[in-house]
């Protein structure tokens, strides 16, 4: 997900200033994707440059509320309507690490897997606790659930890696 499209989604429900966007973005993603305020304002400047948002008047505190434009709504609809393909996602560092450990033969691959499994289990426990404590609604729950499913899939993949490496011996 791009910050750009996330901000457009939030603005599609009404005007907001940068701090509000930051707070709502973090709440919507279950605080799993923290933004600094500089990222928000840099992105808003680009969105304005591209004609996707318009700044309003400054309020008494000097804050400017931004509004999504018709072009911004079209861009948001295009984004929502376009599936995310695997090749658009960042490369998985763990996959690369294990492949290089096997290929280079310089690491104890079983130990790499063991350490990763321990870290993933710890993360899974923390996510489960966070899910029980979540109070910010469906958006936050969906993000946490996704992270739980990814951690569970990683555990299954690590089991698979161990099995493949045993076959190779």
Radius of gyration: 21 Å
Give the biggest beta sheet.
2 strands, antiparallel
Care to count the β-strands?
2
What would you call the structural class?
mainly alpha
Shape: elongated
SSE sequence, one letter per element: HHHEEHHHH
Neighbour order of strands in the largest sheet: 1-2
Q: Which band does the percent of strand residues land in? A: 5-15%
Are there runs of 5+ residues with pLDDT below 50, and where?
none
Distance from first to last alpha carbon: 41 Å
The mean pLDDT is: 89
Assign a percent range to the helix content: 55-70%
Number of helices: 7
In short:
The chain has 169 residues and is mainly α. It is 67% helix and 7% strand. It is elongated and about 70 Å long.
Per-chain topology:
Blueprint: H1 3-11, H2 18-28, H3 37-49, E1 53-58, E2 64-68, H4 70-81, H5 93-104, H6 109-133, H7 138-168
Antiparallel strand pairs: 1-2
Helix pairs in contact: 2-3, 6-7
Describe the fold and architecture.
There is one protein chain. This protein has helices at residues 3-11, 18-28, 37-49, 70-81, 93-104, 109-133, 138-168; strands spanning 53-58, 64-68. Helix 2 (18-28) packs across helix 3 (37-49) and helix 6 packs antiparallel against helix 7. With 169 residues, the protein is mainly alpha-helical. It contains seven helices and two strands. The model has no long low-confidence stretch (mean pLDDT 89). Helix content is 67%, strand content 7%. A hairpin with a 5-residue loop joins strand 1 and strand 2. A two-stranded antiparallel sheet has the order 1-2. The chain is elongated, with a radius of gyration of 21 Å. It comes from Nonomuraea bangladeshensis. Residues 91-166 form the Transcription regulator PadR C-terminal domain.
């Amino acid at each position: 997900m791009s910050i750009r499209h996330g901000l457009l989604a939030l603005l599609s429900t009404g005007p907001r200033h940068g701090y509000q966007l930051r707070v709502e973005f973090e709440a919507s993603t279950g605080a799993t994707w923290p933004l600094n305020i500089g990222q928000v304002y840099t992105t808003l400047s680009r969105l304005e440059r591209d004609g996707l948002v318009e700044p309003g008047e400054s309020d008494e505190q000097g804050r400017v509320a931004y509004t999504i434009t018709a072009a911004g709504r079209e861009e948001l609809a295009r984004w929502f309507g376009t599936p995310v393909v695997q090749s658009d996602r960042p490369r998985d560092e763990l996959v690369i690490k294990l492949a290089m450990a096997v290929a280079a033969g310089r690491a104890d691959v079983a130990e790499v897997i063991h350490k990763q499994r321990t870290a993933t289990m710890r993360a899974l426990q923390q996510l489960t606790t966070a899910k029980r404590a979540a109070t910010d609604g469906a958006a936050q729950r969906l993000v946490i659930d996704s992270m739980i499913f990814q951690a569970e899939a990683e555990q299954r993949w690590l089991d698979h890696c161990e099995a493949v490496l045993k076959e190779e011996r």
